[in-house]
Design goal:
By secondary structure, this protein is an alpha+beta fold. The chain contains eight helices and four strands; from the N terminus they run E-H-E-H-E-E-H-H-H-H-H-H. A four-stranded mixed β-sheet has the order 2-1-3-4, covered by helices on one side. InterPro entries: Glutathione-S-Trfase_C-like, Glutathione-S-Trfase_C_sf, Glutathione_S-Trfase, Glutathione_S-Trfase_N, GST_C, Thioredoxin-like_sf.
Length: 229
């Protein structure tokens, strides 16, 4: 098994309320890979994000002298070098389903819900870019119901989103929903199935560091860190 070198410090350059950074953090924690978290306030002068990743995107993982970018590629790389516990299934058809759902949340859900809501309600405030556009927020919060309905349809026939075992697809979905839950923008009463799924994944040890996050100037919802919500 190819495991990280114990002599090298693993660093994750991240920002707390990024779903893509959170997905990588969950995988690292689930695999019990020790990592130093380094916040990169990419909107401030002095950020070295472009030097670490010419695409200008977080997260960036420094491991064994290499800089790794793109959250999905990082997560699958970690799953290959540290196979236990597995987050990608063994069968090609099952791996396809995991990747399809990861793309669903990282592309479609992000474009329709996470990005517009977080940009308006969090990042405009943090970056001092003015007041949120209420129409954009409303559209994002309206779109979330479609996605919760889709998740419910999956969970009515599966224990986890992609099948009977927890996979990277669950971490991708939980990363986006946890960001929105931080600002109390998920109606957990809308779907019992989705709420029970999130309660399961939220109670995992890998989730603890996410529940301890605190973005200066943006306080978490009172229920955010509670396992009984």
């Amino acid at each position: 098994m190819n495991t990280p070198s114990p002599s090298s410090t693993i660093r994750l350059y991240h920002v707390a309320l990024s779903p893509f950074c959170r997905k990588v953090r969950l995988v690292l924690a689930e695999k019990r890979i020790e990592v130093e978290l380094v916040e990169d306030r990419f909107w401030e002068p002095g950020s070295e994000i472009m030097r670490r990743n010419p695409a200008g995107k977080l997260p960036v993982l420094r491991m064994d002298g290499r800089l790794l970018a793109e959250s999905q590629a990082i997560c699958e790389y970690l799953d290959e070098i540290q196979p236990q516990p597995p987050l990608m299934p063994a069968l090609p058809a099952e791996r396809y389903e995991v990747r399809r759902l990861c793309a669903w949340f990282d592309d479609k859900f992000n474009a329709e819900v996470t990005r517009p809501v977080m940009n308006e309600r969090v990042w405009k405030k943090v970056m001092r870019l003015g007041y949120p556009d209420s129409r954009t927020v409303k559209a994002g919060l309206s779109a979330i119901r479609y996605h919760l309905d889709y998740m419910k349809s999956l969970l009515e026939h599966r224990r986890w989103l992609a099948g009977d075992v927890m996979t990277l697809a669950d971490f991708a979905a939980a990363s986006h929903l946890s960001c929105l839950d931080y600002i109390s923008d998920v109606d957990w009463t809308y779907s019992t199935e989705v709420q029970e799924w999130y309660a399961k994944i939220k109670s995992r040890p890998a989730f603890r560091s996410l529940l301890a996050d605190h973005l200066p100037g943006v306080h978490p919802a009172p229920h955010y860190a509670l396992l009984d919500f």
